[in-house]
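Hi there,

I know you've been waiting on this one. I reran it after we fixed the sequence typo, so this is the corrected version. Both the input and the resulting structure follow.
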Amino acid sequence: MFVTTRRKRPAAAVAAIAILLLMSASFASAADRFKVDHPLNPPAPQFSGQCPLCGMVRSMWARTWTEFDQTDGVSQVCSFHCLADFTRKSGRLPKNIRLAVYHAPHMMIGSAGAVIVIGSTANGTMSPRSKIVFANLEQAQAFVSAQGGQIASFSTALDVAQADVSRENTMLVKKRLKKGKIVEPGTDDRCAVCEMYPSRYPNNKCQIHAKDGKIYHFCSTQCMFTFLENPDRYLKAGFSPQLIWVIEFNSGRWISGRSAYYIVGAQDVYGPMGFEAVPFDKKSDAESFAGQHGGKILLFGDLTIEKIFNR
């Protein structure tokens, strides 16, 4: 008969294990202290606004929200990514930039005093490399010790976002198409205004996603702005647009209709319905086009069907 006996651990080994367990628990509690819901779920209705570049709503993405003095019709975006994208589009950095503090999104602080943590384990917005805003260095250092990342100034964080934005935009369009945020018109889909087939006009097609989930396809920006001016003529009352997508003239890719630069009055460029508002992603490209073909630049909020026809 064999009897097994459990060997006792030396007291020093037991103490070392206890210290390691205590350190591990302390680290876990420190990491948990910085974990927050992002995006906010459920959405927080006290935060209102929508990013005109990507369609994100502030009630969900308030932790990375950015405000600034109105520039080309835009005064808020959801993230460093969209701020970098808008700077690329408009050709200038907006003035008086204010950033939401990640752990206290009701607080907006000036960009000069913000401390940014780049590339931590915390979720970002529109970018796989998060950029988290803190109001002071001590809070940022405590966050880095628990969640990783590197501390940077606002200008450095924006430089990083600008270096990544074009590549990320390509990935985002593919992701939106896959998830149905953008939907290519099928061969049987008809324009909500003229009933032509948008799929036959790949350079002019555009679409509106309503808040109720319905998608309205259009053969041209002329038809889309006709619809937006009087949707009750085509639908039951209560229509509210959520996402608006148009095809950019130069690249042929989908871009946000809310932040596009439109040329009206071009001398020799027409759409399937005739007169058209020609969309551009970058202001400089719209200016170059107008120099060659005539016309003037209008923003989404200034565009009406009358301005498309009154050349």
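Quick highlight: The helical segments are 11-33, 58-61, 80-90, 137-147, 154-179, 221-229, 283-293, 305-309.

Best,
R. S.
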